[in-house]
Write a structure and sequence with these properties.
Largest sheet: 4 strands, antiparallel
Oligomer: single chain
Order of helices and strands: HHHEEHHEEH
Distance between the termini: 103 Å
Strand order of the largest sheet: 1-2-3-4
Helix content: 25-40%
Bound molecules: zinc ion
Mean pLDDT: 91
Number of strands: 4
Number of domains: 1
Strand content: 5-15%
Low-confidence stretches: none
């Protein structure tokens, strides 16, 4: 028959393509795999940024340690009482003790990272009690601290704080006052100045023994609710 004849004439290795349904199934499988892997990739990247931030602050601590050693224990000054006309952020005071200040002064999760980088600022804020801004509560010399391991040196700046030289330091000695405590405004005050949940609910604190702690925002909320003007985590110990 004609059909049989035609069939026998067909090459034996006839190419068979994908049907539309098969193609759609493959696309659906790839889509599902990407959807499953994407959160893992994103959280791996977030973890890398968090690690980079902690490492930045550790290097800031090591440089500040050398600065203090070279200045009989004195902590660096902020723009508040910096007499230089240049008006540089406090971080540049310790820059000579670092390999590259530009590679450590910015938190990769700071929404104003690019601006702060361009304006020669930093994502890290010094505890005002270690400058002479806090008056009689200030301890400006590391050698005069009773407990370096309990004294806060720096924390992460709040995302909404503008990238301006005035914000190279913040007035955290105003967080715990009789009024803010009585009005239960301490946590609001802290949040206005500090990023307390920048890295998936935690942020980094540098202490005067130059160790960096990842502090949960729940812990900071607890401190805000229970501590007092005369006994709180900002005071030099
Ligand atoms: Zn000031
Ligand atoms: Zn950070």
């Amino acid at each position: 028959m004609i059909t049989d004849f035609h069939r026998s004439c067909q090459p034996t290795t006839a190419r068979r393509g994908f049907t539309l349904v098969e193609l759609l199934v493959v696309i659906a499988i790839i889509g599902t795999l990407v959807a499953l892997l994407l959160p893992a990739v994103q959280s791996a990247r977030a973890a890398a940024r968090r690690t980079k931030c902690a490492s930045n602050l550790r290097q800031v601590g090591l440089a500040m340690g050398q600065f203090c050693d070279a200045h009989k224990g004195r902590f660096p000054e902020t723009s508040h009482n910096d007499s230089n006309d240049e008006q540089l952020s406090w971080i540049y005071t310790i820059a000579p003790f670092m390999e590259s200040v530009d590679s450590v002064r910015i938190c990769p999760d700071d929404p104003k990272a690019a601006e702060r980088l361009a304006e020669k600022l930093t994502s890290y804020v010094m505890n005002a009690y270690l400058t002479d801004e806090a008056g009689s509560g200030s301890v400006t010399n590391r050698n005069k601290l009773q407990s370096v391991s309990k004294t806060l040196v720096a924390y992460e700046i709040a995302s909404q704080k503008a990238a301006t030289i005035e914000n190279d330091h913040l007035h955290n000695h105003g967080w715990f006052t009789p009024l803010t405590v009585a009005r239960k405004e301490v946590l609001d005050k802290i949040r206005a100045d500090a990023a307390i949940e920048r890295h998936a609910g935690v942020s980094h604190f540098l202490y005067a023994d130059w160790r960096v702690e990842s502090v949960d925002s729940d812990a900071v909320s607890e401190w805000a609710a229970t501590q007092t003007p005369t006994n709180n985590f900002c005071l030099p110990k």
